DNA sequence: CTGAAAGCGCTTACAG
DNA sequence: CTGAAAGCGCTTACAG
């Protein structure tokens, strides 16, 4: 490997001069600088080795991304894709790399202290939708690196970017109830990251560790409480156990099999769109036979006429990356709450006159 | 910052012992190891600092991903998402991180030697669909790190994972012609990464620097040549200038405005699906009024009944990541060609009897 | 504007 | 099974 030292010798200058040639053009005369750069190219030196620089400066030049359990899911989910877009936009501007950290599911590995989480050379972490009590957060915190939560628990004291999930869900469910629906089903992607799927018991709902889903559920339930004559306890909640299209469809099937509902409140647009598909496959017209509402307003929601809650997904990514960069630079930890908006389209109507 | 040295002092052992406690459990007695680990936790040492380890071992523990110009696009494109899934699957297994390298569009920056491309701490690069002559490749190569091309030029001598684009395109176009189409239009995402959109001149097609698109064009043209009575020169080729849904739709509009075609051969499924949308918006039935074929077989293709070419997108990612890992480990550079398959659905039929 | 020197945190070959 | 020592490639405070 050609090092700075080699270039310095070949160019007849000190090692410091070579470093300056690459990093501090102002500290060298132009001629000197160009001479050094020319020699460097000649002997095949591509520039300072990141490992050396990183050790010396204490900066990695990269942001770590902790995404739920598996990266696989991340690339499957439209909402996540938009978030990543916002994050990478900022990363690009700031010229920092984005490091996706594979997250071994076996928490034993994480706890042991092995794993990329601890070895990844990053300056800080963005933790996306990590379930509560996930050992990853703790380990990362123990490295002493800044962490910004995205869609995480609102009460940890950690800097965080999110939306008012509970209120938005409340408002949305209120709309559904205002249309007169009495037999309502709810779909969530997952409550506890154990892959379990199917009708969720009350206990399961209480032990939910995915804070975003649980906040939304609280919002839905609150809307029922507002009405004296609607009973949240009659609502069937089905958990998909994942975020992909396949499990979403299956969850919709389970719900439609389990209860004769006139409206489905889906915790995400992906679930809502899968529900519309499944309903239509069963010959149910949306919204005439079945109303469906979602959450997120992913791009595909519009074409499907889905009534939903819009959250600024790309902007959430941007804000999160900026906040992390700020904190790395010594800025204060703070919480950013982004605005949401009820989007009325055509998938919500009054229940069919039976 | 708490270092290994601090732990060693606190535990009353040598620095080497601390290193062993974390990296080579077999070189220490169990009691000793546990004592060290306990002390480490007590004084807040989370494990070896990646920067130090990286400098010492010469390994970064991360794979770099070079994706066209902007990461933004990557998260927009279903085919890329599947590729990333395959890559991350392997990364997860091998416990290496995936570093997305923001790619400044201004090639000046790259040429200057600044930029994350040179600073990113990675052990090798996966270069995805990089246009020919892109300065990034050269710079990265100059770092002396292994590079695996994914969907790149087939004749650079660099290790590469791809598919037989030309033959597959040839076969697909042959199917279109066999159905009797004479007025055919072609859609490509981009030929030259300058964002230009619209009808592509012959010169523009020749100067194409996106090798995948140009290979597919060659295949299409070859199919025309096979037929004595079809003239490739009458084919209108429209370039979208990007990969997202919006520009894809616009390209379809441009094509349908420019020529009265009975069939559209789209260079990607995203373009094909956009074409179907636009056609239906104009009151054209697919395939009765207009046949459309795509390329890739992304998940959405099936529901749309799109006739296309299936390529194993996830597997392409897996193979590429594995190959890069192999080469980093000293394995030989080689080329992997993945199989493709013509997928007949309903979007291709005979042209309407006029 | 330039150079000599220290040291960032770690791993490993070596000697015991 | 254990420890002392070297050195990975770099940047920067300091002295000139």
Give a structural overview.
The structure is a homodimer of 354-residue chains. Chain A contains 16 helices and 13 strands. Chain A is an alpha/beta fold and 354 residues long. The first copy, chain A, folds into three domains: 4-48, Orthogonal Bundle (434 Repressor (Amino-terminal Domain)), CATH 1.10.260; 62-162 and 313-337, Response regulator (Rossmann fold, 3-Layer(aba) Sandwich); 165-312, 3-Layer(aba) Sandwich (Rossmann fold), CATH 3.40.50.2300. In chain A, the strands form three sheets. The first copy, chain A, has a six-stranded parallel β-sheet with strand order 2-1-3-4-5-12, sandwiched between helices. In chain A, helix 14 (269-281) links the parallel strand 9 and strand 10. In chain A, 55% of the residues are buried. The interface between A and B is large, with 56 and 56 residues. The first copy, chain A, binds a DNA duplex (16 and 16 nucleotides) through helix 2 and helix 4.
Termini Cα gap of chain A = 78 Å
Structural domain tally of chain A: 3
Indicate the CATH architecture of the largest domain in chain A: 3-Layer(aba) Sandwich
Low-confidence stretches of chain A: 110-114
Strand order of the largest sheet of chain A: 2-1-3-4-5-12
The Cα radius of gyration of chain A reads 25 Å
Order of helices and strands of chain A: HHHHEHHEHHEHEEHEEHHEHEHEHEHEE
Q: Which protein chains make the most extensive interface, counting residues with beta carbons within 8 Å of the other chain's beta carbons?
A: A-B, 56 and 56 residues
Q: At the third CATH level, what is the topology name of the largest domain in chain A?
A: Rossmann fold
Q: Count of helices of chain A? A: 16
**Secondary-structure class of chain A:** alpha/beta
């Amino acid at each position: 490997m050609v090092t700075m030292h080699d270039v310095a010798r070949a160019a007849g200058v000190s090692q410091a001069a070579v470093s300056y040639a690459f990093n501090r053009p102002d500290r060298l005369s132009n001629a000197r600088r160009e001479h050094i750069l020319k020699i460097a190219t000649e002997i095949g030196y591509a520039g300072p080795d990141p490992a050396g620089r990183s050790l010396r400066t204490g900066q990695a030049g990269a942001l770590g991304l902790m995404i739920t359990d598996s990266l696989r899911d991340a690339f499957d989910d439209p909402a996540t894709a938009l978030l990543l877009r916002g994050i990478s936009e900022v990363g690009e501007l700031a010229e920092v790399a984005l490091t996706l950290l594979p997250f071994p599911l076996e928490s034993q590995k994480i706890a042991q202290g092995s794993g990329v989480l601890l070895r990844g050379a990053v300056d800080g972490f963005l933790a996306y939708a990590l379930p509560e009590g996930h050992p990853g957060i703790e380990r990362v915190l123990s490295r002493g690196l800044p962490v910004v939560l995205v869609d995480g628990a609102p009460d940890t004291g950690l800097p965080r970017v999110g939306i008012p999930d509970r209120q938005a869900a409340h408002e949305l469910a209120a709309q559904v109830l205002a249309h007169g629906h009495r037999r309502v089903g709810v779909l969530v992607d997952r409550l506890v990251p154990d892959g379990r799927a199917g009708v969720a018991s009350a206990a399961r709902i209480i032990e939910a560790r995915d804070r975003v889903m649980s906040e939304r559920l609280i919002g839905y339930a609150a809307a029922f409480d507002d009405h004296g004559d609607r009973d949240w306890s009659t609502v069937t909640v089905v958990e998909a156990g994942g975020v992909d299209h396949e499990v979403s469809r299956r969850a919709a099937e389970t719900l439609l099999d389990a209860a004769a509902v006139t409206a489905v409140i889906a915790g995400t647009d992906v679930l809502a769109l899968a529900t519309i598909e499944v309903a239509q496959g069963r010959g149910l017209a949306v919204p005439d036979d079945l109303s469906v509402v979602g959450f997120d307003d992913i791009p595909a929601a519009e074409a499907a006429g889905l009534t939903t809650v819009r959250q600024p997904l790309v902007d959430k990514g941007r804000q999160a990356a900026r906040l992390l960069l700020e904190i790395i630079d010594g800025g204060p930890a703070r919480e950013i709450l982004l605005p949401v908006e009820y989007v009325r389209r055509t998938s919500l109507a009054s229940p069919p006159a039976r």
